[in-house]
Specification:
Layout lengths: L6 H22 L2 H7 L6 H12 L2 H11 L3 H24 L4 H15 L2 H11 L4 H25 L7 H16 L17 H4 L11 H17 L2 H11 L5 H5 L1 H19 L2 H19 L4 H29 L5 H31 L7 H22 L7 H6 L1
Helix pairs in contact: 1-7, 1-8, 1-9, 3-6, 3-17, 4-17, 5-6, 5-7, 5-9, 7-17, 8-14, 8-16, 11-16, 11-17, 11-18, 14-16, 15-16, 15-18, 16-17
């Protein structure tokens, strides 16, 4: 049990991540099947890319607000309410067979409120921890358990391809909004009277890229985001091709290895250099796509299972790295910039690029799944090579520091 937080506050943070993870999964995981079931497959790459477009604007802007003007819990509350409303509108538009481009516009509006929330809640939680290396993994695992719960709930209710999943997700986001009233209030610095628009929009966070190793972390996670963007749009389709039903539940296999990795973070950070943890995550990424390229039930499920561990050892480690290296006054903006580069640049290129790659691999009869996943495995391999050659941080693991 943690000693840095009073028990009540500790459980408040656990519950926040759990219900937020549940709300995110209920809509995001079945989105592809929902669009396919309603004849909207042509806009599917653009629907997922809409999250990337929003990530260029929302995370930095609302991150700057949470750093300078309004307590993060209040910002999170407003965004959760807006997300619930917009998710209801999107579901209704799909249900009533609105024009595909109107549906896409509503999805884009939805993502403007959805995109910044996880980085804000992560920053809020990290701010309450005395030892993020040891404590963040177990708390973050509750978001993963929530994500699994959302996936299983969708399949249990048999709404894997139904807009009812959207209405269910909207109700969960209202639950997040209500719960923010119970969160600890963090003081924010008094805003300067002469802030420029550059600062108000959070664009001054780009100065964080001046540090070489910090820049490499940002670039690596962005590049890695490109191939893994294919996971939720196309893995369910591959599962269906191999005869699986209730694909949302099968996709939750990824969260099992993610939870294992989360609870391993404390030990890994204590004994390993951060560089090798990061490299391990990228290496697992190569393996998970290579296994999916095997195009059998067993190899695809194993590839899906490894996705969570790869995700954790790259993206969660990146969050912890920023928490350690960045001045507290820039905490939320640093996490928001990570969201912008990963969810914005990485996802935009990833969703559109992997959508194009999928169409190339599906030109003839049937999809050439080995070619599709094999190409993505090669891309992750290139990202791993870049990271190993560019990252120079030689900080020792905690165990080595203690021995000294």
């Amino acid at each position: 049990m943690l000693t840095t937080l009073r028990k009540a506050e500790y459980f408040e943070l656990l519950i926040l991540f759990f219900i937020q993870g549940t709300a995110m999964a209920i809509w995001f995981v079945p989105l592809g099947p929902i669009l396919d079931a309603h004849g909207l497959h042509t806009i599917k790459p653009f629907a997922f890319a809409a999250s990337a477009v929003a990530a260029f604007i929302s995370p930095l802007m609302f991150g700057a607000m949470a750093d300078r003007h309004v307590p993060p819990a209040k910002v999170l509350r407003w965004l959760a309410v807006a997300t619930a409303i917009s998710m209801t509108l999107v579901s209704t538009a799909i249900k009533t067979h609105c024009h595909p481009w109107l549906v896409l516009l509503m999805i884009q509006i939805f993502y403007f409120s959805y995109a910044p929330m996880f980085s804000i809640s992560s920053a809020l939680i990290l701010a309450r921890l005395q030892n993020a290396q040891k404590e963040f993994g177990p708390i973050r695992s509750l978001a993963t358990i929530g994500w699994m719960s959302g996936c299983l709930l969708v399949s249990a209710l048999n709404v894997d391809s139904s807009v009812r999943a959207g209405y269910l997700g909207a109700a969960m986001w209202l639950g997040v909004a209500i719960f923010t009233f119970y969160l600890p209030t963090l003081e924010v610095p008094k805003s300067a009277e002469n802030l420029t628009w550059h600062e108000r929009l959070g664009l001054d966070a780009l100065t964080l890229l001046k540090n070489r190793d910090t820049r490499v972390i940002f670039i690596t996670t962005t590049l890695f985001n490109i191939p893994i963007a294919a996971f939720y749009p196309f893995a369910p389709a591959h599962l269906r091709d191999l005869g699986f039903t209730h694909t949302t539940a099968w996709m939750s296999l990824a969260q099992i290895s993610e939870i294992i990795a989360m609870f391993s973070l404390g030990w890994l950070l204590f004994n390993w250099r951060l560089k090798w943890i990061f490299a391990c995550g990228l290496g697992i990424g190569v393996l998970r796509f290579a296994l999916s390229a095997g195009n059998t039930e067993a190899t695809l499920l194993l590839g899906i299972f490894l996705h969570g561990a790869s995700f954790t050892l790259v993206f969660v480690i990146a969050q912890i790295y920023l928490e350690q290296r960045i001045d507290p006054a820039w905490r939320t903006r640093a996490q928001a910039l990570l969201s912008l580069m990963n969810g914005g640049i990485g996802n935009l290129i990833g969703y559109l690029g992997t959508g194009w790659w999928f169409s190339e691999c599906a030109r003839s009869t049937g999809t050439k799944w080995p070619l599709f996943w094999g190409g993505l495995a090669a891309l992750v391999g290139a990202v791993l090579i870049y990271f190993l050659t560019a990252f120079r941080d030689k900080s020792l693991p905690i165990s080595a520091t203690i021995r000294k």
